[in-house]
Structures are given as C-alpha cells and as structure tokens.
Design goal:
CATH class of the largest domain: Alpha Beta
Number of strands: 15
Number of domains: 2
Distance between the termini: 52 Å
Helix content: 25-40%
Largest sheet: 7 strands, mixed
CATH architecture of the largest domain: 3-Layer(aba) Sandwich
Bound molecules: 6-O-phosphono-beta-D-fructofuranose
CATH topology of the largest domain: Rossmann fold
Length: 365
C-alpha cells in the first residue's frame, strides 16, 4: 500500500515528528514481517496544494511536489520544528475554485492507497470529504489552537504555551522596571486555550478569551485594585479572538483565506490604549504572532507526535479510515472525522474561567 503524508494549515513543532513516526512504523522491518501488507511512503509537499498541482505524468513535477520517505531520510526529523514537507492553506473544495476533480484524478494516477493528513479543522475537513468520496484517509490532529473537537490534544499546543510562558517571563523585567501594564496578544483564533494556559502558567493578572467578552471598565477596576496593593506593573494576556462586550473580533486586515478565515489581530493595542486613557497607567502591548508556531518541539509534543504517528499506521492496518487519532480521557484512540467538522472545542467558561477576575478559575467546586 502506498501511504501519502501531507501537512496542512498553520505549521507547528511536532509535525516533523509525526511524519517521522508514520514512516518508521509503516516501514519497520520487524513489524513488516508480522503484517499481511507492506507499505511505501511518500510525502506530499505543501499540503493539499501539492496534491492538486502535481502532474503525475511529468517526472519534473513529481520531483517538485513529492518526496519518497524512508527511515534514513526522516531519522532526525523529530527534533526540529516546522514541517519539512511544507504546508499551505489550499482548499481543493473551495466553491470559488473547486479543484477536487483534479485532486481525485491525481490520487488515482499516483496510485495512492491511503492519505495521512496532519492538520487542523480545515485540513482534516478535506480528508473527511475525500473519505466520503471513497478515498482512504487517516487524520492526525495538529493546531497550536488546540481547538479540535474529539481530542484533548493537538500537536503544537504545548510548545506554543511554553513560548508564551518564556516570553512573558522575559517581559516582566522591563514591565517592572518601568511600572507598566503590558498587554500580550496570543494566537488561538476563536478559542482561548492558548491565552488561558499561557496566561495561567505565566501568572498573568488578567486573561482575556474569545469565549467571555470583557468590560473594559471592569478590567480597569481590577488594575486599580492591584495598583492599590503597591504592585507597580501588570501582565494582561489577550487572545487574538477576544472582544469587548457588545463588540466584534479585531481583524488584522481584510484578507480571507481559502477556508473563509479572516486574519485576527489588534486586540492588544486596543486594550493598552483604553487602559492608559482611562487609568493613566503607562501601557504597552506586543503580539507574539508566529513566534508561537516556531522553534523546536517540546518534550510533550515530541512524545505525542510519536504516539499519534504510530497510532495512525495502526489505524491503517485495522482499516480504520475516515477517522483521526485522538487523545480521549488520556488514551490514544481513533475518532470519526465527521465529529470534528464544523465545530470547535472552545473554553468551557463555567468550568475553567472566572468572569469576575478575568482569569482562570481559583476553585473548580
Ligand atoms: O490556526 C493556527 C493559527 O496560528 C491561528 O492561531 C492564527 O490565527 C492563524 O493560524 C494564523 O494564520 P497564518 O499563519 O496563515 O497567518
């Protein structure tokens, strides 16, 4: 069986490890001896775009869009961030430019038997559509937003939380020296997991998440209380999708991607300006932006990349298609792709967030 691996959507640390372990498990000589099927593994470059644009009849095009993978080639990949296969936000089923026919034709012509798609809701949504059209697909959950339903974990989230924590640790010295309020904008799109976990583990005073619109006056009152305790600076973490009560998400620009997503951004600057205007406290802001997607994978992301990659091959052996690997109640299992389509795993405010303190809960009773 020919397995084609692709990585789609925002890149993150952990992707290369997942590619490595799919390859190593599929081609493992000892395991192969016990299996009734043997595998060949290829990588598709730049996510779904590679599989749409490749011309299977043109060797040059194939060498540009495809990579043969084996244990030797992927040996060191798990240590490095990003994706060595490249990625894109191409949507072959985009109604404005539907290239799904070409996609299906190329899958057929290339003799691909199974596609292992590593991605978030958009990438895995394409895998689900292909499954409905009779193509064997297996998903591996990946997004620093950790907003995929059906799994407690998506690759990249832990490393991104560590970036937020390390950057806020650094920020404290200058905030303290100047007695300033710093507003730190995190990624996460419409889910506040990155801001919540990043803010909680770095001891932020206020955490703003999309799931709980905030009152700016309430926030200023909280800052006055802290000032009153003779603490001269504060860190506020604001998720890029957070919004003032009655307000809308802040957009970085008017661009819309192939899956209909706007580019969010600007909340931190708005909050810093409003605080300074209303309290007189000197305020600054910064956007961590793509630093949260960069760097080498954390230990946990390396571990989960290995576990998810191995589980994906087990699913192929078990002919468990149209599903993704998931972490459910701490166990690795397979989850139907249809479960993740069209909905996000958002922060349960009741369970995890304190809407009075604008921070994580202090008691879960
Ligand atoms: O989905 C992951 C993510 O990092 C979001 O948190 C963020 O809003 C978006 O991707 C940024 O997309 P791009 O890398 O295309 O600018």
């Amino acid at each position: 069986m020919k397995i084609a691996i692709l990585t789609g959507g925002g890149d993150c640390p952990g992707l290369n490890g997942a590619i490595k372990w799919v390859t190593k498990s599929a081609l493992d000589p000892i395991l192969c001896a016990t299996r009734s099927v043997s595998f060949e593994v290829i990588g598709i470059l730049d996510g779904w775009r590679g599989l749409v644009e490749v011309d299977p009849d043109d060797p040059k095009s194939c060498s540009y869009h495809l990579r043969d993978l084996n244990e030797e080639i992927v040996r060191t990949w798990d240590r490095y961030g990003g994706t060595n296969l490249g990625t894109s936000r191409t949507n072959p089923f985009n109604p404005k430019n539907d290239r799904s026919g070409k996609l299906l034709e190329n899958i057929e012509k290339l003799g691909i038997d199974v596609i292992v798609a590593i991605g978030g809701e958009d990438t895995l949504g394409v895998a689900y559509k292909l499954h409905r059209l009779g193509i064997k697909t297996v998903g591996i959950p990946k997004t620093i937003d950790n907003d995929l339903t059906g799994t407690e974990y998506s690759l990249g989230f832990d490393t991104a939380v560590n970036v937020i924590m390390e950057e806020i640790d650094k920020l404290r010295t200058t905030a303290g020296s100047h007695g300033r309020i710093f507003v730190v904008e995190t990624m996460g799109r419409h889910a506040g997991w990155l801001a919540l976990h990043g803010g909680e583990c770095s001891g932020a005073y206020i955490i703003l998440i999309p799931e709980c619109p905030f009152e700016i006056d309430r926030m200023c009152d909280l800052l006055r209380v802290r000032k009153g305790r003779e603490i001269h600076y504060s860190i506020i973490v604001a998720s890029e999708g957070a919004k003032p009560a009655g307000g809308k998400e802040f957009l970085r620009d008017t661009k819309i991607d192939d899956f209909g997503h706007p580019s969010l951004g600007g909340i931190a600057s708005y909050v810093a300006d409003e605080i300074e205007k209303r309290t007189g406290y000197e305020s600054r802001y910064l956007t961590l932006s793509h630093l949260q997607r960069g760097g080498a994978p954390s230990a946990y992301d390396r571990l989960m990349a290995r576990r998810f990659g191995i589980a994906a091959v087990d699913m192929i052996i078990n002919e468990d298609f149209g599903r993704m690997v998931g972490l459910v109640r701490g166990e690795i299992m397979s989850v139907p792709l249809k479960e993740i389509i069209g909905k996000l795993k958002l922060v349960d405010v009741e369970k995890y967030y304190d809407p009075v303190r604008y921070n994580g809960r202090r008691s879960i009773l």
